[in-house]
Write a structure and sequence with these properties.
Strand 5 and strand 6 form a beta hairpin. It is globular and about 50 Å long. It is built from 13 helices and seven strands. It folds into two domains: 150 residues, Butyryl-CoA Dehydrogenase, subunit A, domain 3; 119 residues, Roll (Nuclear Transport Factor 2, Chain: A), CATH 3.10.450.50. The protein is an alpha+beta fold. The N and C termini lie far apart (57 Å).
């Protein structure tokens, strides 16, 4: 029982991350939860003592589950509609609406036009910084082919995204308020701009730099950033409002920021040099 309790705790520590992966692939909160539960079932049936990197293992498993679900969804869409079959519900749940707002409804719509393999490659690489070598094993292609899938998806996403300039000013204000509160050690100010369920997800290099792993919850994330961010500045990260940290004129960390309404819902920190090189980071004019 003790070992099982430990496994449950370990799984729960990764739930937020793999659920975010699943939602961005599937665009449905209910289906994302189904994928997370399937990942738990597979973990419970596995020999956990042989898993060296549980977070990476769970990400791979949930990605494969989502890929299967996307392929099944595509197959259903291609089947002829049987007369008398009820139309699926189109109204989103409150939870889905909140999650959609955090990454943009328009992006979800565009992602839905991609092939299952394109969507998985794009989400895993561009949103979660998974190496193409790992993505290749998930989609059953070579690393070069996985890179092409993500590149093709990226072009389609960029070509179809509407002009979001109206949101840039508002989101920059939120980031400015977050950084100001961080630098001043203003806990109350941080809590005002952080969503209660905010997550902080560092890549491996950022985790080592800050000696911290993935965090969840406004109090916890605020505690991490309180009194910090002295070198951080708002920037456009891959075309969206984010945060850049530079020392001596060299970019060291880029953070993708996701929003839920007027609050920050997620901070994804990239410090790996290869990951930074693949990103477009443009500081705002002073």
């Amino acid at each position: 029982m003790a070992d099982n309790d430990f496994l449950v705790r370990q799984f729960e520590s990764h739930r937020g991350h793999i659920r975010a992966v699943a939602y961005r692939m599937l665009g449905s909160a209910a289906e994302a939860e189904d994928a997370v539960q399937e990942a738990w079932i597979r973990l419970a049936r596995s020999d956990a003592t042989t898993i060296g990197n549980l977070g990476g293992w769970l990400t791979t498993v949930v990605a494969r589950v989502c890929l299967d679900m996307l392929r099944a969804r595509k197959a259903r869409r291609e089947e002829p509609i049987v007369p008398g079959t009820p139309e699926p519900a189109t109204e989103p749940t409150d939870q889905e609406a909140m999650l959609a707002d955090s990454i943009g409804v328009a992006l979800l719509v565009v992602l839905d036009t991609l092939s299952p393999a394109e969507r998985v490659a794009f989400v895993l690489h561009d949103m979660f910084d998974l190496p193409f070598e790992d993505i290749a094993a998930i989609v059953g292609r070579s690393a070069a082919a996985a890179r092409q899938l993500a590149s093709r998806a990226r072009r389609r996403v960029r070509g179809a995204q509407p002009d979001e300039n109206a949101d840039v000013a508002r989101r920059r204000e939120i980031v400015d308020a977050f950084l100001l509160a961080s630098r001043n050690g203003d806990m109350a100010g941080l809590l005002r701009v952080l969503d209660p369920e905010v997550t902080f997800h560092p890549d491996a290099v950022a985790a080592r730099m800050g000696n911290v792993g993935e965090l969840r919850g406004a109090e916890t994330v605020a505690g991490l950033f309180k009194g910090r961010a002295q070198a951080a500045k708002p920037a456009l990260v891959d075309g969206a409002v984010g945060i850049a940290v530079a020392f001596g004129g060299q970019l060291r960390i880029a953070m993708r920021v996701r929003f839920a309404g007027n609050r920050i819902a997620a901070l994804d920190a990239v410090a790996d040099p290869a990951g930074l090189k693949a990103m477009t980071v443009e500081p705002f004019e002073p």
